[in-house]
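batch job 7 of whatever, protein = Glycosyl transferase family 2
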Amino acid sequence: MSIQVSVVVPLYNKETYVLNAVKSAVSQGDAVMEVLVVDDGSTDSGAERVEALNHSKVRVIRKKNGGVSSARNRGIQEARGEYITFLDADDIYLDGYIAEIVELIKDFPSTEVYATSFYKQWPNGRREPAYIPMTFDSGKAQLVQDPFTAWSRGSFIHTGSFCVRKDTLFRENIYFPLGENIGEDQDVIFRLMESTLVAFSPRPLMCYSQEIANSLYSSLPDYLLPCYARLAQRARTPNYPSQLRSGAYRMASVGYLSAVRILITKARRFDAARLIFQTPSMYHFTYWLRTLIRLCLPIRLMKLQWLKWV
């Protein structure tokens, strides 16, 4: 079975990093059919640097600035491979990532989404492996049966660590939501998990960057991300997959309460109180109760060491 993967790299003003991302993709072997670098109206020379590689598998697509979602969506439309992966311009694949994806495709042919674990990587080179849920077998690849409950304890998939059949995106009409620059990738992953099982390898085979200029992961949002509001709304519909509903409620609650906790740290207690008493916030009751305790504590107690466990 010949497997062909298109790697979509959205690019906006990351000339310092993009070559490392592209080289990490083209070095993955024959299964990588192409690397599509979608330049989203950059004002630096990143696109020119990629073109200077003059690599037969690398194609630069230029478009007006429209945000990371529009760039990824353009890559989906332009992709020629049967499978698509997404790699941000300041992230990298590690050796063996695509080979592991190919093995997942062969071992789990009935599903349509495949993913590996990943590292968080800081500018000083320090790497931290992503959380692996305790319900997973950390020694082998597996199908994820309850993905939302697992994710509610810690994200085990990153945008750059999953692969999807291109036809699945078209069939389910799944695209990255336009105008959103944070949580837009989670929205896609959530909808894919509602459509098919995920084949997952616990091997960390990609790195995503922390605290880099123009990186979306360098700051945490103090507002409710739309992806969580939409997840809660979908979970309440009658036709939602019954085996996923409880986990989806729990995941939505974590999204709401994470925003509440950030608001508390910024002393925006009124905004936090408005959010914490919305119904979806209460779906994960123990986390809701712990967050409510934080909300009720005086500001002078917020820096106490024990509070991190609340």
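notes: Residues 226-309 form one domain.
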